[in-house]
Amino acid sequence: MIRFSHDIGEFAPLFEDSAAARVASQARSVRLLYEMTLPGHGEQTPQDEDHRNLADLLSDASVVFRPDAVQREIYTSDSGTPAIPVFIRRSLVNLDTRLVVRPGTLADLQSFVRWSRENHRPWCLRGAGTWPFGGAVPVGGEIVLDLTHLDGIHPAADGETVLVGPGALVANIRRDLRERGLALKQEITNPHSGTLCGWIATGGLGLGAYKYGPVRRSVQALLHLRPDGELETLRPDSEEFAALFGSEGQLGVIAGARVEIKSDAFVSKPYAFSFGAVDHAVAFMEMVREWELQPTSVLYFDHEYMKITAEVQATRHRRLLDQAVEESDELKTRRERRDLETARSLDSVEHVVVLEFDTRADYERCLRYPLFAPGGDRRRYRDLQYRRLTVHQAHMLWDHRYAPVQMKSRGPSMLVSEVVLPLARFVEYCDFLTASVTGWTNNPLKTEAHLLPDGEMLVQSILLADTGTHRHKLYLTLVPFMTQAALRLGGRLYGTGLWNLPFLGRETDAEADRLASHREAKDRLDPDRLLNRAKYINGAARNWRLKLYTKLPAPLLGKIVDLLMSGRRDRRGVSPYFLGRALWRLTRLAIPGVVPPTLAAARPSIARINSACAECDSCERVCPTSDVFGALGPATPITRRRTAERLSRGDTVDQAEALAFLACTRCDNCTRVCPTEIPLTEMFDMVEAEPAFQAALGLDTDAKQAFVDRMWDIMKESPLYLPHTKAEQKEERSHLQHGLKIQYPRGFA
């Protein structure tokens, strides 16, 4: 039985944080934006009782609003849900919300949670909304609790820990710490989005996990807001502390966290090796464990992953080189030529392992072993054949850690199975999926993995497709197939949400114990099942189709996987595994003909550009208009992109939506940070030239220019625009002496 303590003293700085000034400034900016063209627009009057009651209950630091058509699309999506065809989503679950609450203080957050319990109102949690399994999407019109404004970041005076609010993005924490010469020990792979508290709730595995362990090892305390509205501080020595990790928001809100940090050495030393086969790469990773080396991370990329990465990187640096030549920038030209050569050279590598060291002692220790000796020739160590990659190749591959979705532009659909698998079964898993998925489809599977300190791998198996075509929608069935194969080999899910529900409870005994613990806590803390309905362990609001979806696929897939694995092992004679052998042959013959891997949907230009979006929301986090006019409101990259989508599919756009689209500074920050390199500002120009957009806008050239000029005046007067006037870090190459890269902080001239 889980018990809770009550102590919030060390979290006092988070209770002092308030978004009141930000909310007031953004409301004023929105009012001024529309004042001359659509007076009163954006000033909502509560239309229903819940809206009125919440508006009266919460302080001026908080926002309560009815989402418009664009915002409903945003709030009912995350980074994975758009990959599910619309007709499947609509048949399985009603994704909709009627009200969004964005608290600006922890006191208001607590007041809302208490109100929802007292009035029996269902609600769902949303941090950054970038988790891929449907864990942050509202079901059946429930209220969305948007934590965006609870983004306090408070490094301790001794530089040992940092205190963060539930809406604090990892990117912002990284930036604030670096300005003080500090750094997180563990990070997510989305460089510009994702909240630290949300990452805790979904498991906390990622970069830095090999040396420092999962993020749980760095968390000293959690501020837990229970579904009944009560607060308590939880510490690592308590059972309830462990229950929150991987709880997917079912047990309440992680309203704050105190996390251990480290000094930032401003030095990065990666090594990269190419092996001829996956078993050699795994043997090397076993040696790293045997030698007790301490890289922060150990990353694996298979041969097919490297081929597509080399192609994407070469295209990128070719474009940047052309720009540098056009600008007559000699320094940038030299740099891009070298990077282009490095990117092209990656096409010849095979199965790659990348290690990154963050201290001199750690990387000097590895020099005791012959594998780390300089030289790029193919060599042999014990039974391993390998090649140590160059310094520039190693840095390019380590920098790629933040861009796993970069290849999505070649899809544009990126279908991913993400699991945690024993290292000892990784070769078998890769061999089976190569023989099945790649062999059946003639569409090579790409694999990326992170080695974890306890002998496990966090594995992403990636299939590029174009689900805009009807036949490529059949590829969607291969994602649960890959997941089932991992479970069959002793793996486990890395997150459930909505879309992994068929596999819930079909894992190892240890996972069954964790699941039982979460269910027991859910029964006690949220007996009415008001929080995060339909997802993970909360069966409330599941219709009969979703219930059927949770029951049928896994047993059927389990039988198919068993048959195939058995049939692959026993290839001769008459045996019970004959059906498995026959299934191998039939699928290899049929699937490539029925579903050609090169199928591509015909799309208008705007839709084609938009289709590469990874839904990571990185663009939103760096946009000045998003800060000035409010996140996910008018004049932000995400709402503009949604408007572009709506226009391309023929939806009606009103004047208010068209006016909001115009409010863009064309600073190109969004394009700069986009991991799939969507030319967003170019697309915005294309949308503004569309006749349907011009008709919705209803302004002549002079009136349009007057609106844009007014937008600029509002921007320059807003205190929220000031941070965007800071100088960015220079792009010139840092020193690479002895393979080190010196990482200068933002604003360093």
Distance between the termini: 56 Å
Oligomer: single chain
Q: Structural class, from secondary structure content?
A: alpha+beta
CATH topology of the largest domain: Alpha-Beta Plaits
Number of helices: 30
User: What is the mean predicted local confidence, pLDDT?
Assistant: 89
Question: Summarize this, please?
Answer:
With 749 residues, the protein is an alpha+beta fold.
Q: What do these coordinates show?
A:
There is one protein chain. With 749 residues, the protein is an alpha+beta fold. It folds into 5 domains: 18-146, Uridine Diphospho-n-acetylenolpyruvylglucosamine Reductase, domain 2, CATH 3.30.43; 153-263, Uridine Diphospho-n-acetylenolpyruvylglucosamine Reductase, domain 3 (2-Layer Sandwich), CATH 3.30.465.10; 266-403, Alpha-Beta Plaits, CATH 3.30.70.3450; 411-520 and 542-601, Alpha-Beta Plaits; 605-717, no CATH class. Helix content is 41%, strand content 14%. It is built from 30 helices and 20 strands. The strands form 3 sheets. Strands 11, 12, 13, 14, 15, 16, 17, 18, 19 and 20 form a 10-stranded antiparallel sheet that branches. Strands 5, 6, 7, 8, 9 and 10 form a 6-stranded antiparallel sheet that branches. Helix 20 (553-569) packs across helix 21, helix 25 (637-648) packs across helix 28 (680-688) and helix 26 packs across helix 29 (691-697). The radius of gyration is 26 Å and the shape is globular. It starts with 11 loop residues before the first helix and ends in a 7-residue tail after the last strand. The model is unreliable at 1-5 and 727-738 (pLDDT under 50).
